[in-house]
Amino acid sequence: MEPPSSSRMNSRKRRKDGSGPNGATELDGIPQKMSRRSFGLREPAPFSDEVEIDYSKPYIRVTYEEAMRGTPLDRPVRVYADGIFDLFHSGHARALMQAKNLFPNTYLIVGVCSDELTHNFKGFTVMNENERYDAVQHCRYVDEVVRNAPWTLTPEFLAEHRIDFVAHDDIPYSSAGSDDVYKHIKEAGMFAPTQRTEGISTSDIITRIVRDYDVYARRNLQRGYTAKELNVSFINEKKYHLQERVDKVKKRVKDVEEKSKEFVQKVEEKSIDLIQKWEEKSREFIGNFLEMFGPEGALKHMLKEGKGRMLQAISPKQSPSSSPTHDRSPSPSFRWPFSTKTPPSSPVNRSRNESAVTYDISEDEED
């Protein structure tokens, strides 16, 4: 069964002229806008004994076809859904949402069984009846809440609340000595099936709590609940406190390990960074050294240039060969080693230079 909102969707078509917002037209599959205040209620749903019913009008049920076509606004289809609704969860809310959307114009009445009936026919509940009433009241799909709802629906109850259809999942609900408590409702053509939400139920939530009981007991002891309030024995209380201390020590050790790992990682990163920088600097230093002192380095060229300049500075300049002889000035006399002739000198110098043989080269001898 499709929700009534799907009737508002039309075939998707789009014109090239782009008339309308963002180029959309009336034929586009865009749902109609609704009033802002229709998205939610400002107050919880009232109880059935707080709602006035006009009994002057006769109670005439609508058929399924009439309900699907849509009824007048002053005559909504009255759909009834009942349950325990313990630990109210999203599975409950989805079931009530489906019941609310069964027909275009639906007034949803929800019956909640009392603690006495529930404990007798099903078992002990986590939430008491007042808490369960309040939880259902605050569900946005609910229009009216029936407190102390009956376990089996009677014709008198249906007529009192002028119910047209009863919504529930189609799985047979065996209870109170019956294979299906909704069997007579189905035979009367008043049953409207809904789908269960897989993966979540009150029993599943209770199973999780029982499975992790120690964890929740320790947590609530730490929050200030007493062992008596939690129905925890003296030995278990001491055990939970000891486990809590051990867990704290483990957490501290784990924190220290994580911090030490982070420190070691940072040291490794910094050492790698330093090694990389050292390698870069060493390559740069070696390159500069080779540029200065290598075989073709700058120092060799500097030495060559300096040697050339020194040789040029100490070597004498030769006179031109074409110049006349008589115009020359007397050449200085040089003393050559191993010369047989000695220049005139004083007696003292003559005695010192007896062993030395020198030549006095003049310009005439040179010619």
UniProtKB/TrEMBL annotation:
The keyword Oxidoreductase belongs to this UniProt entry's keyword annotation: no
Residue numbers spanned by region Disordered: 1-35, 313-367
Function recorded in the entry: Catalyzes the key rate-limiting step in the CDP-choline pathway for phosphatidylcholine biosynthesis.
Biased composition (Low complexity): 330-339
Coiled-coil annotated spans: 239-266
Compositional bias annotation for Polar residues: 315-324, 340-356
Keyword terms: Coiled coil, Lipid biosynthesis, Lipid metabolism, Nucleotidyltransferase, Phospholipid biosynthesis, Phospholipid metabolism, Transferase
Reaction catalysis annotation: phosphocholine + CTP + H(+) = CDP-choline + diphosphate
One Pfam family from the record: CTP_transf_like
Gene name of this polypeptide: PCYT1A
Family: Belongs to the cytidylyltransferase family.
Gene3D superfamilies attached to this UniProt entry: HUPs
Domain Cytidyltransferase-like as annotated: residue spans: 80-208
Species: Aptenodytes patagonicus
Keyword Lipid metabolism: yes
Transmembrane segments: none
PANTHER family (alphabetical): CHOLINE-PHOSPHATE CYTIDYLYLTRANSFERASE A (PTHR10739:SF19), CYTIDYLYLTRANSFERASE (PTHR10739)
The protein's Enzyme Commission number: 2.7.7.15
GO cellular component terms listed in the entry, alphabetical order: endoplasmic reticulum
Protein name: choline-phosphate cytidylyltransferase
NCBIfam families given in the database record: cyt_tran_rel
Top EC group: transferase
UniProt pathway annotation: Lipid metabolism; Phospholipid metabolism; phosphatidylcholine biosynthesis; phosphatidylcholine from phosphocholine: step 1/2
GO molecular function: choline-phosphate cytidylyltransferase activity; phosphatidylcholine binding
